[in-house]
Design a protein that fits this description.
This protein is mainly α. It has nine helices and seven strands, in the order ββββαβαββααααααα.
């Protein structure tokens, strides 16, 4: 990593001028220089200034082009290379003669070098051979325009009908407002009932809510079932009273015969 003269941190290195260079300065000040990464230059400082396609010097005054992979060729040599490819060559088959990278940079790559190379290649006469079919702009035919006209008319008609229906429903008067007010009111009541459902509640509120839910979900009971429930409650009450009385009667003899509870046996109490 190093600093370009424009104070931009970059890992690119101009081999001929032996200094770091960014892509912006590469386009403007180093159009024909050999540019590699600084690590590649440390591993191998040898470089060639000739065009790979023709073998002549790149800085001989003829126009050159730098591809997205930073390889530089004479424009005429690259054009001849593309035109000599078989007619059946797909756009993906046009690759750099040196590093086998794609000849046309991807449209998503917005670096200055890739952008300049893409603009020059797309402006050339052979640009149609480099563009994939999915990316080539195709103007709409007259038949497609004619077929889309009825569909657009149907969309406009349906939108008009919807607007008329909404307008008529809006002018239906206060009756519609009352009909829509009831569900909103019920929703608001339900929301207020469940606002604090996670908050701690007292026992009375919990029992009241349980009884309310029971009454709202239970079916109307007949007279016979109510009598049975009453009798069962009375039986449980009687059994509870008898249990309490039995416990009290059993505890009485224990209290009377307990020496610890006799005042006469207590040394701290004097009796006459």
């Amino acid at each position: 990593m190093g600093l370009c003269k424009c104070r931009v941190v970059t890992s690119l290195f101009c081999v001929q001028h032996t200094k770091n260079v960014c892509e912006k300065c590469m386009v403007s000040d180093h159009p024909t220089c050999v540019v590699r990464s600084y690590k590649e230059w440390l591993n191998d400082s040898d470089y060639a200034t000739e065009c790979t396609l023709c073998g002549d010097e790149r800085n001989d005054g003829r126009p050159c082009i730098r591809l997205g992979c930073y390889d530089v060729f004479h424009w005429a040599c690259l054009e001849k290379y593309i035109n000599t490819q078989p007619p059946t060559t797909t756009p993906a088959g046009f690759i750099c003669p040196c590093c086998r990278a794609p000849l046309l940079p991807d449209s998503h790559v917005m670096s200055p070098v890739a952008k300049q190379a893409r603009e020059r290649l797309l402006a050339a006469p052979f640009a149609s051979r480099l563009i994939p079919v999915s990316q080539s702009p195709t103007p709409p035919s007259s038949s497609a325009i004619a077929s889309s006209a009825p569909a657009q008319a149907d969309i406009i008609n349906s939108a008009t009908q919807l607007s008329q229906m909404s307008g008529s429903s809006g002018r239906s008067g206060p009756t519609s407002r009352k009909q829509t007010a009831k569900p909103l009111e019920a929703v608001s009541v339900a929301m207020t009932d469940t606002d604090d459902k996670y908050a701690p509640k007292p026992v009375g509120a919990w029992l009241q809510q349980t009884a309310r839910n029971r009454l709202s979900t239970s079916k109307p009971e007949s007279g016979g079932s109510r009598l049975k429930i009453t009798l069962i409650i009375l039986v449980f009450v009687i059994i509870g009273l008898m249990t309490v009385i039995e416990l009290l009667t059993r505890a009485r003899p224990e209290i009377e015969g307990n020496v610890l509870l006799d005042p006469g046996m207590n040394p701290n109490i004097q009796t006459d």
